[in-house]
Amino acid sequence: MRIAVPRMGNLPLIVEDLARRFDLDYIETPPFNLQTVELGAALAPEFACLPLKAVLGSFVQVLDLGADTLVMGGGHGPCRFGFYGEVQKRILDRMGREFRMIILDPPSASLSVFFHGIREVIPRQRVGGAAVLRELSAAMAKAIVFDEMEKWALACRGLAREAGSVDAALDESRRLLAPAMSRREVRKARREILEVFDAVAVERERPHLSVGLVGEIFVVLEPYFNFEVDTWLGRRGAVVERSCCISDTIYPGGRNPVFGHSDRRVARAAAPFLTHEVGGDGLLTVGAAVLFARRGFDAVVHLLPFTCMPEVIAKGVLSRVSSEMDMPVLSLSIDEQTGRAGVQTRLEALLDLAWSNRAGTQSESFSEDFTPRPSILTRGSGGVTREGL
Ligand code: SF4
What we know:
Blueprint: E1 2-4, H1 11-21, E2 25-26, H2 34-43, H3 50-64, E3 69-73, H4 81-94, E4 100-104, H5 111-121, H6 129-157, H7 165-177, H8 183-198, E5 209-215, H9 217-221, H10 223-226, H11 229-235, E6 238-242, H12 246-250, H13 263-270, H14 282-294, E7 299-305, H15 309-325, E8 329-334, H16 340-366
Parallel strand pairs: 1-2, 1-3, 3-4, 5-6, 5-7, 7-8
Helix pairs in contact: 1-6, 2-3, 6-7, 6-8, 6-11, 7-8, 13-14, 14-15
Bound molecules: iron/sulfur cluster (SF4).
The site of iron/sulfur cluster has 12 residues, from helix 15.
């Protein structure tokens, strides 16, 4: 089998690690580009959401590179994602492509179904059950550190004294973590990575905005589709935090170790505005926005693929969250037509609004002086703080 999986944020790093552990022949799906999107949009039903089109286009590209087994995530609940693997398989079959599709449900949905799927990729004859469990547990620990590193980078970038120092720390951290295989090695690498981030000079008292990123996981994590909004905000001095990441999504039990707020807590936070699951990441979007508002964030950016049903519901609810909790929320609908300049113009307007809100609030109590609020790096952010680790 020559295996390929879709791209999304840190997923290529996680899958590469799994391929090494289980000695799988893995081909990395090429980074998204205009051709990927055009291929997917031409093949997919017009009103399918962007992740289906983008992943379909990348499957065509990776099959051309020699992959013969595609591993696609499965899903459950009121969202079309659960059908996407099957839809993509049928479209590619109709094109006459020869391949095998394995649909893998996440362990957070059902451990037994997940293990059944895993056994299609890693046959029983090759690796025993105990070894699979041991390696998956170490891979999970490593995936969490990959996501934590990004969380620290987003928190530091806006306050870094030297431009580029956070990106250098992130690169160095990835280099340190890549060879770690056992849980002990992952813990050791994590300690070294913390030292790398501690060495980044940050100006904690610099006036800054805190911006939360919420929305559908694919567009929140995939830089090609979100126009690197998190880095863009960081370079403009904002401290950024995301509500979703890959390791939280696959972590069993809904504990969300990286975001730091369990599914239960998120649902409780969302309850005054939305009381039930709407599929995808819709409930998380609303709950996380409320948690960001409670923690004093200045603004929230909501990213949603065009025609994403759960996020369209969340978008409607977020306008109430915004007015009742007095926090600006910018919803950006992303599809294959969306342009970088339009996104950045709206983000600039959001930052202006957040600064003027801050000035308005502070002029009541501090007259003309800006007193910078403490950075979220030092406030218990509920999730990972550099000091709290
Ligand atoms: S969450 Fe939204 S974008 Fe993602 S698969 Fe479901 S409907 Fe599509």
